[in-house]
Each structure stands twice: as structure tokens, then as C-alpha cells.
Amino acid sequence: MINNQNFISLKQVSINNGFWSYYIKLIKDVMIPYQWEALNDRVPDAEPSHVIKNFKIAAGEIQGEFAGMVFQDSDLYKWLEAVSYSLIAYPDAELEKTADEVIELIAKVQQSDGYLNTYFTIKEPDKKWTNLRDCHELYCAGHLIEAAVAYYEATGKKKLLDVACRFADHIDSVFGSEPHKKKGYPGHEEIELALIKLYRLTKEEKYLNLSKYFIDERGKRPLYFEIEAKERGNTNFFDLWNKLGPKYFQVHLPVREQTTAEGHAVRAVYLYSGMADVALETGDKSLVNACKRLWDNLTKKRMYVTGSIGSMSIGESLTFDYDLPNDTNYSETCASVGLVFFAHRMLQIDPDRQYSDVMERALYNTVISGMSLDGKKFFYVNPLEVWPEACEKNKVKSHVKYTRQPWFGCACCPPNIARLLTSLGKYIYFKKDKEVFVHLYVDSELKEEISENQVSIRQSTQYPWDERIDIEVDCEKETEFTLSLRIPGWCKEAKIKVNNEEIDLNSVTVKGYTKINRIWKHDKVEVYFSMPVMRIKANPNVREDEGKVAIQRGPIVYCLEEIDNGKNLNNIVLPTDSKFEIKTDKDLNNVCVIETVAFREKYENWNDELYKSDVKVSYEKTRIRFVPYFVWANRIPGEMEVWVREK
């Protein structure tokens, strides 16, 4: 069993200045209030949420019909989870009062047996637990549990936790291996992660066992989804089973036999995160091995350079190895959030740089691309190439937007971003026995107890723009422990000094972490990561990127935008000997942009012909400007591309 003392509490970490402090304050000051207005249908020109209205109807406070998606409840639970994490960093009496009032409303909706779901309470009370495949009951329950655990940890208040425990107890009475119970599992995985959080807080073994049951049962024959469909007369809420089959739901095989990442991308990484959680708690090596196989396939053959996953719009799905189109890809923001969850859990099992590198890639690129710099507009889909006219007129690309939206009818992504970033402190550090790992370089401070002594580890840095991180270690008494610092995979030249004495990295680096073991008291560590502009090439099997390069500096992937470089970005060709110049753009929140000289293809005798053989091509020098991928579409709408032709 795991030692819970290894987990870093959010109350132990403060994010002080630098890159991420902007986003955490933005969520506190803008996103949380804005999303509250959206949940109450008070955002002009935005799709209505219906969430608060649904809860009031289910509680008997107002009359009306259920509206929105079948999983609409989860938007409120994710908002509450983000509120909880924000309250830890920024206590706010008014926000807490609003949260308490919402929790009272949620409690009023809960039925006498513990069941809680506004859709089935209002619309189909006689069909509870009859369509696990489509109707997201367990998914919503999972988000309620996660919110309850977070709110208790933030405030010490048990009202929502008691609601969640009653619901979890009800679910435990319905599902399981016992003869009188249903042999089902969720169509959209989520509850597996939540039950582990509830178990770690309450120490109730039944929650661990229930999470393990949902994972172990998945994919067994006969498939439960087929059994329940037959029992309800083969009616479908959504038609995804007939279109995409068992792989879409990750039930094509038992989880320990799965070797490729399949189906709906968010569901997949939530499942893998739950598998890793259960493996961590039980020591199940077969689950660990399955997680590692799935991780390898997902990140080495099915992930975009921006840390996004899920290339097909139909079903928001993964497809096959190296199928990574840029202009039609889906890359749901939630999928990258889930990839961060999976990476973080794999780091707890096996502290290896491959996991923290991907976690960083997703965070700095796709996750924060999912919201605008002012925190009021959002991307659901994260393409790597955009041609606005095609998005408007070619229905194959209609899911791709070239401007962020104020809200969505299916609004899972904005609150998912908020709950991840407000809990970022949990992802920076990890403690294992007498070893502290630094996974992410963030201006922050960790306060931890090691060998019964209080230890403070403070990072000061402007990373990812600056190459230097200063770390101060202060102990109330001399304390021996290992400080393990990640050397990013993208970094080809790193230096680390302790009290001005340089460390021999080759002799103390294991799985990408430099392990500095010493007796610490008041010590300074200087970390330097060289950040030249890099040209990234894709595996030759990625057909769309053949002959192209992506530009990356540090963990940041860059792109071209029409506003800086004119129309027809596809005509720009980057010479192999280009010299790059790095500048700071104050209008884009002080990000580093990259400028260089390139060529633009010119066709001198094309006229009005559609096809031609005797074409004269010339190359005109032009100065081009790359901006970080995550800031694209914050100015005038236009074309965008990540992969650039190379000459």
C-alpha cells in the first residue's frame, strides 16, 4: 500500500510570481466569476448552460424541464473543484459563501437512497442505471466526489463530502461482483479516479475496491454494454456504439490486455489515470505494465507536438499510429488535461523524465491554448493549422474554430482548465521517502517535513522564457535528503551548481533526474538549461509533416499567424540556415516571440489556370515571426500553422 505522506498537499505549495502566477490569478479574478455567470446563464451571446436552473428544478425550487447535455451536472462540480483549490491560495469569504449556497442546493437534490443526478431526477426517474454506456451517471458522480474531496481539504467543511459519501455508498450498493449487483462500469471513465481520492481521504476500503472493480470488469465478455442495451430494447441515447464500436469505450479488451490507445481520447486517459491510481494503491504490476504499454503507444505514436491527443472529430477519438493531421484534428482541451493527469500518476509509480516531459509539453501548449489571455473565451478543439474560410465552408472542418468561443453547450473544457491550473501546485513537486522531486520549474515554494524537520524549497525563475532557475533550500535543522531535479528532454546543455560548486550530471542523473544527496541546511542551487531555438521534425510515418519543421524553444512550441506574416502561410519556406532572433512582445503578455528571415514562394505565370505544367517559381525573402502556440487567436482572426515547410 502507498504511504500517503508521499503526496504533496496544495496547502504546502505556494506559486509566487512568474509565468504560472498570471494564470492562477486570472482564474481567480476572471474565470471563476465568469464561469459562475455562465452556469447561471448570464453571459450575453453565449450558449446557455442551464446547470443552476436544472439543480433548482430538481430541488423543487422552480418549475421547468431539464435542459442541456445529459452530463451537464459535471460543469458545476468542476467549477466547485476549481473554487476549492483557489480558496487555498486566495481565501475569499464571498466566494466561499457562494460555494456553500451551491452545496446546499446540491444536497437538496440528493434522494433518500443517496442517488444524485438532475437529468434522471427531472426527466427519466424510472431509467436510472439503465444506460451506463451513454448517460454519464457515473461520470457525473465522479466529478461530484472530486469536488467534495477538494472542498473538504480547502475548508474543512463536510456538507458536500457527506453528500458524496452517501452517493458513493449508493453506487457501491448497486455495482460489484456480488450476485445481486449490476456488473456494469462507466461509459465515460472518471469515477475510478474520484473513488481513489475518496479512499485516500476517508480510508474506507470499499471505495478502493469499487474503483478496482470498475477497472477489472471493463472489457470482460459478455460485454455489459451489450447486455444492458438488450434489456432496454437496444435504444441509444447517442449513436456512438453503432458508429465506432467497443474500442470507442475502451471495452474491446480487458484493460490489462490493451496495448494501443483507442477511442474517445478523454475517456482513454481518464481510464489510464484510474488504472495507475489503483496500481499505485495495490501494487498490481500487471496494471503498471499495461499503463506503460498504453503510455508508450499514446505518446510515441499518437500525440501531437503540442501535447494534444485525439486526431479524429468523429467521436473526439484516437485513430491509428502516426495519423496526425493538422487541419482537421480535434485535440480536445480536456484530452490534454487528462494526459497531464495520466503523466502525473505515472510519475508517482516511476519517477521518469518521459512522464514529466509530456506533462510539461501539454501544460505549456494545448492546456493553456484552451483559453484566451483574458480568461473569457475558450477553445474546445486545438488544431495545428487553420484556414478560416475552410473552417466556415468545408463541413469536414466545421468543428475547427479560428476564434475562441465565450461558452459551449457542452462546456467540459473551461472548468477542466480551471480545476487543473488552480491545483498546479500538486504537480510541481513529489516526495518519496527522503527524496524530493522537482518535476516542473515554477516560481514557487514547497514546505515539507523530512525526518521530522521542516524544510523549505523555493524556486525563483522566469522559466519558460529564461534559462535559469535559482533554488534555495532552508532547513530548521541539518537534514539529509535527496533533491532530484528534472533535466528536460529537450535540453542538450544543462548545468547545476550547489553553493557555486558544479555537479557532475553524468554521475548522478537517473531517468532524467539529477539526484543531489547531501546534508542540507541553508543552501543555494543554480540550475541552467540552454534554450536555443530548435527545429523539430516528425517521424517520417507522419505523412502530413514530411518536409516540414516545427519551431520550439524550451517547452514552448511556436506557430505562424496571418496577422504577423500575411496570407497563404503555406507558401512560406524556412531555410535550413536561418538565424533566429528572440524578442519580448509586451502586447502578448510579455511572451518571447521568434523572428527570422525566410522565403515566400512566388508563381510568376499562373494566371487563371487551375493546373499548369510550365510553372515558374521564384523565392522572395521575407521576415517572419513565430509566436507561442498557446497565444494564437488572441488578436485579429486569421490563418495559423505550426508545421512549416523547410528548404
From TrEMBL:
Domain Non-reducing end beta-L-arabinofuranosidase-like GH127 C-terminal, chain residue ranges per copy: 533-645
Superkingdom per UniProt: Bacteria
Domain Non-reducing end beta-L-arabinofuranosidase-like GH127 middle residues, every copy: 436-531
Domain Non-reducing end beta-L-arabinofuranosidase-like GH127 catalytic: from-to ranges: 12-425
Database matches in PANTHER family: DUF1680 DOMAIN PROTEIN (AFU_ORTHOLOGUE AFUA_1G08910)
Protein name as catalogued: DUF1680 family protein
Organism for this UniProt entry: Thermoanaerobacterium butyriciformans
